[in-house]
Give the backbone structure.
Amino acid sequence: MASDMDSVTAARSRLAERMASPWWYKLVAGLCTASLFVAISFTLDDIFFSTAMALFVFGAVVGPSANVAALKRSTGVAVDRYRGGMGTWYLTVFGVLVVGFVLQYLLSVPNVLYVGAAVAFAATIWLEFHIDRLLRRRIAGGDDRR
């Protein structure tokens, strides 16, 4: 019985290490989020409209879908990475977006959404590291709490 439990624990540990996302996954996730800010800035400034739409489609649809598919292929594991642990990210990214929008378009402060893109990029990179830690803990320890 003890050896069976040790085998399960060892298998959980191996799976937990395999589930960690590689550096490129985090980078692409950050770029997708940042591209949304840049696209909104381009669109509302009435410049580069086609570039803005391409960035928006990349950041909202194509980039995330391709990134998740590449992660699954790379790690051989497909899990719902975003089930829990995203509250702080949502508050940060959408809070920065709202504040940036108000500053740039209602108060005419230039280029605020570009700074917001950098903040959103950093917040997304942090989120991906945080989610890796949560997944490792849940899988390795059998902990399903958020």
Observations:
- The two ends are 29 Å apart (CA to CA).
- The chain has five helices and no strands.
- The chain has a mean pLDDT of 83.
